[in-house]
Amino acid sequence: MAEVEAGSRPTIQGLSANEVLARRAAGQVNHVQLASSRSYAQIVRENVLTFINCVLFTLGIALCLMGRFSDALVSVGVILVNVLVSVVQEVRAKRTLDRIALLTMPQVTVIRAGQPETIHPGEVVLGDVLLAQAGDQIVVDGQVVGDGQMDVDESLLTGESDLIPKRTGDAVYSGSFCVAGTALYEAQKVGGDSLANQLAASARAFRRTYTPLQQEVNLVIRVILLLAVYIEILLAVSAVMNETPPLESVQMSVVIAGLVPNGLFLAIAVAYAIGAVRIAGRGALVQQSNAIESLSNVDVLCLDKTGTLTANRLQLHALHPLGVPEAELRRILGDYAASTAAGNRTTEALAAALAGQPRPVLAEAPFSSERKWSGLVIDVAASQGVYVLGAPEVLRPHVREGVELETQAEAWATAGLRVLLVAAGPPGSSLHDSDGQPCLPVELQPLGLVCFTDELRPEARETMQRFAESGIRLKIISGDNPQTVAALAQQAGLGPDARLIAGTELAGMDDAQFAQAAEDATIFGRTTPQQKERLVRALRKHGHHVAMIGDGVNDLLSLKQANLGIAMLSGSQATRAVADIVLLHDSFAVLPYAFQEGQRILNGMQNIFKLFLTRVLYVTLLIVSVGIIGGFPFAPKHASLLALLTVGIPTLALAAWARPGPAPRGSLVRPLLHFVLPAALTLSLVGLGVYAATLVGMFEAAMAASPGATEVQAFQQALPIAQSALTTLTVLCGLLLIPFADPPLRSWGDGTAHGGDWRPSVLALLLLAGYGLILALAPLREFFELAALSAVNYALIAALAVAWALLLRFSWRARLLERFLSADLA
User: CATH code for 313-455?
Assistant: First the structure.
C-alpha cells in the first residue's frame, strides 16, 4: 500500500480501481445480507402451516374423501380467508418496511486511489482501507493502519461496555463501534469470514423471541389446544363405544378443532405489522417487533438535548478572551479546528467561523462524552504547544488559581448557550498518562471562553405539550451544563419549576439517593454515558416503562438499557444499530403519534381477546353440556358460519378501528375474565336451554307424526332443527357482544370499555342482515344446512337474545361474578 504526502501529514492510497475489480471477480467481497423483515416464504409458511391449520386441512381432505365437499369448502374456506387476509396484510407491510429500510442502511467510507468514497458495506473488498470516525460501525474485521487512534466499543460482541483504545497494528472487529477519535483500518476478513456475520449465522439457529403479549397469547392458545385435544380424545372413545359413523366423527372433529383460536396469534403479528407501516408513514422505522408493544406502555421518556430538542446545528456565538488578545484567541481556535483529526460538531462550528491553518500534530486526545474535553499537542516552529478544549467545570480543577471563569460562563449557560473553555498546558506537558490513557495537564493557563448557539427544533414546544397530555413524564439527560439545558427546555415549554441536577452531584450519591434523584429530577446535566445508563436502569427498577431517545455514541449504553430505544437517522450508526425505532426525519414530533399507535394496537387486541375467548368458552361448554343430553351442538358449516360472523370479520374491523387511550397494564387475561366469564357462562346456559327445548319438541312432534318411526329416526329428524335454533341464537348473541366489546355509548358496555364508536355496532347490524339473508334465501340456507324455523320461533329466539343481553349487562354492572369470587377482575 503506497503512502503519499499531503501537506505535512501522510495519507494512505488504498486500493486502485483495477485491484478492486480483480478482488471482486475473485469473490473477495463483503456480501452482507441485511434482512429488514421476514421473507415471503416465511410469511406464507408461518400463516399457512400452523399446527391447527394442518389439522383442519387434514380433516377437510377426509371430508372430501367422504363426499362432503361443501362441508370441507366451508370449514377450510374460513381458514383460507383468514390466511389470505393475513398474508396480504403482512406482504404489504413487508414491502413498505423494506423500502423504508433502504434509507437507513449504513454507509462506509473507503480510501481508494487516495480519495475517500462512500459505499455500501456489501461493496467492501478484501484489502480495502476504511475510515472510522466517532459513531461509525466497524463493518469488517481488520487492522488499524496509519497514525490515527480511536476508542472502540465492543460491547455488542463481548458484553463489556469498557472502551478499547485502538492504535496502529491493533485488530478491530465487525460489529463494534468507534466512539471517539478517527482511524483507518484495512479489511482482512470480509463476508462470512467476519466475526459479525459468524455471530449472525449462529443467531439464526435460535428460535424467535416473542413479545410479552405474544407469549401470553401463545400460552392461551396452548391451553385451549390441550382442551381441544382432550375433547377430541373423549370424542374418539365415544365414537368407538357407540359405533358412531366415520363421517359424523370427522364432522364433530372439525368443530372441535375450530375451537383453537389460531387466528389470535396471527392477529397480533398483523396488528404489529400494520402499526409499523402506519408509524413509518409518519417518519419512524420500527426495527424490533416488541417496539410496538413497548410504545403502548411508555410512561417515562428520556431524551438528550442535542439533536432532540435542538437541531444540533452549532454556530459560534461569542468569545471571551482571558489573558490573551481576542485576535490571538481566534487564531488558536482556528488552528485547533483545522488541525484536529477527530472532528465533531464543535470543531466544525469553529472551522466555519474562524480561519485557521493545519499544524503538525504530535499527539491528540479526541473528545469523549465521558471526559468532556479534547486536546492537541501542536508542533509550532519547533516549539510544542499543548491545548485543551472542554467543559469549564471539568477543566476548572486543573486551571491556575485566581482566574475568574464562573460569572461569564454562568451568564451564557443561563441564556441557553453552550459554553467551552480553551486552555494551554505548560510547555512539555502531555495529554496521556504512563498507560497511554488521556489525562489533563496540571496548571492549565485559561485562554478564553467560547459559546455556541444551537437551534431549537420548531416542533419541540408542541411535541413536549403532547407528551404531557399523554401522561408521559420527560427526563432530559444531557452532557451539557444543567443551566444551559434548563434554559432550552423552558424555551421548549418545560415548566420553570423543573428540578436540575448535575452529574457531579450524581457521582457522590449512593444507590438509594441516586434512585430518588432519578425519580424526582427532570433535568440532568454534565452526565457521563455511564450515568445516563444508570439513570435509565434506576427508572426501570422503580417500575417505569422507559423510552430513550439518542443520536450519539454517548447515548449507546442508555439506549440498550431502556425498554424502548429510539435513534435519529442522522445520528451515529451505533445508535441506529441498537435502537428499536429510528426517526427517519430526525424529528421526535412523530413520537406522540407513535405512542398513541401503540395504545391503539393494544386496546384493539383487548377487544379481539374478548370476542375470541368468549366464543371458545361458550362453544366448549355447549359441546360438553349437549353431549350429556345427546347429540352435538353444531354441524361443521354452522361452526364455520358462527366463527366467521362473530369473530372472523369483526376482529379485523376492531383491529383497524381501535382507538388510542390508556392501555391495559400487566396481564390482559385477568381483566378479560370480567367480560368473558359472565358472557360465556350465561350464553352456554341459554343456548343449552334452546337446544334442549327444540330437540325435545321436535322429537315429540316427529314421533307423533310418524307413529311407526323409531326413537333414533325421530332424533335424527329433530337434531338438525335443534342445531339450527342453537346456531341462530349464538349468532345473534355473538353479534350483540360486538357493541359490548366496543360500545357506541359507555353506558352500554361492561363498565370498562371506553365507548363512543358506532362503527362496530353498525358492522354488527350489517352482519345480522347478512345472516338474515342466509335464512331467507333457501339456496343459502340449504348450503349452510340450516333448517327453516317458524316466524314465531325466530321471534322467540330474538327476544331471548335481547333478554340475555340485558341480563348480561346487569351482571357486569352489578359485578356479580366479582362478588361471588371475592376478587377484582376489571
Answer: 3.40.1110.10
